[in-house]
Amino acid sequence: MKELFRIAIDSVKEKESQVFCAEGHSVVVHKEEDVYYAFENSCPHKQMELHEGQIKNGVITCPWHRFRYDLQSGLSLTNKQSELKIYRIQAEAEQLVVYG
């Protein structure tokens, strides 16, 4: 996989989501209980932005139509035919590296 971008590891605070744009990708980076997630900022259901969705226990709920997605697998818990794009994220020294 190709590296999309790097950010400082301390730039994403606990229970905080940030949107980063790189190479045509709009990616949300979120931290929950010291786990980092990176996922597409677009709900597959209606292509609405997800960055303001509620995240709890590794599941995001779309703020628009309440679709729910597992942030590890991308699978929808609401509609099995819908899948959220998940990006690989890895900590390296003091940085987070997102691959796509």
From TrEMBL:
Pfam families named among the record's database cross-references: Rieske
Domain of life, per lineage: Bacteria
Cofactor(s) required, per the database record: [2Fe-2S] cluster
InterPro entries: Rieske_2Fe-2S, Rieske_2Fe-2S_sf
Domain Rieske positions: 4-98
GO molecular function: 2 iron, 2 sulfur cluster binding; metal ion binding; monooxygenase activity; oxidoreductase activity, acting on paired donors, with incorporation or reduction of molecular oxygen
Keyword Transmembrane attached: no
Keywords for the protein's UniProt record, in alphabetical order: 2Fe-2S, Iron, Iron-sulfur, Metal-binding
Alphabetical list of SUPFAM superfamilies matching this protein: ISP domain
Family: Belongs to the bacterial ring-hydroxylating dioxygenase ferredoxin component family.
Name by which UniProt lists this protein: Rieske domain-containing protein
Organism ancestry: Bacteria, Bacillati, Bacillota, Bacilli, Bacillales
